[in-house]
Amino acid sequence: MKKDITKEVLKDKEYMDIVLDILYNPEFKKRKKWKHHENCSLYEHCLVVSYLAYKAAKKKGWRYKDAAIGGLLHDFYYKPWQDNLDKKVPFFKQHGFVHAREALENSRKHFPQYLNPVVENIILRHMFPLNIIPPKYKEGWLITYIDKKVSMDVVMNIKALPKYLGLARFFNKFKRK
Fold first, then answer.
1. Which of 14, 68, 96, 122 could form a disulfide with 140 if both were Cys (CB 3.0 to 4.6 A apart)?
2. How far is CA 75 from CA 12, 47, 60, 170, in A?
3. Which CATH number is 6-172's, of 2.40.10, 1.10.3210, 1.10.3860, 3.40.50?
């Protein structure tokens, strides 16, 4: 993450009141150990997306609580996606296509009290246009945009790019032993 906003987040009492139970949930905290992109954990990624969306939605007079919760849970999938990099998986079963549904299922299991139609749609549709159905609500569009913006660190790291494009197996054939 280029910008460390952890201190800012912790000082924002209203934001923390909205998301505190999620942040301190043992299942959610496991994501602190899961690498998301090259230089941050899944926990950090979700926290940054959530907080930036919360601030933007609040400024615009939108449903900022839904944006905060949806941003935090948008990538709450079952296991680290890197576990499948060397496995042959059909194209449309790869992480980018399936993790939104996994995140929604996992959120329903662990945080049903935080879900409503807006939050569920944020989680399920945040991968647009990779997933072809767009978000229904403006808060979903906001998360979709912020998630892409925050995730650009992958594109900026040329050495990591093959892994994220599903080409790791191809390039591993040419590594020196």
1. 122
2. 22, 10, 24, 27
3. 1.10.3210
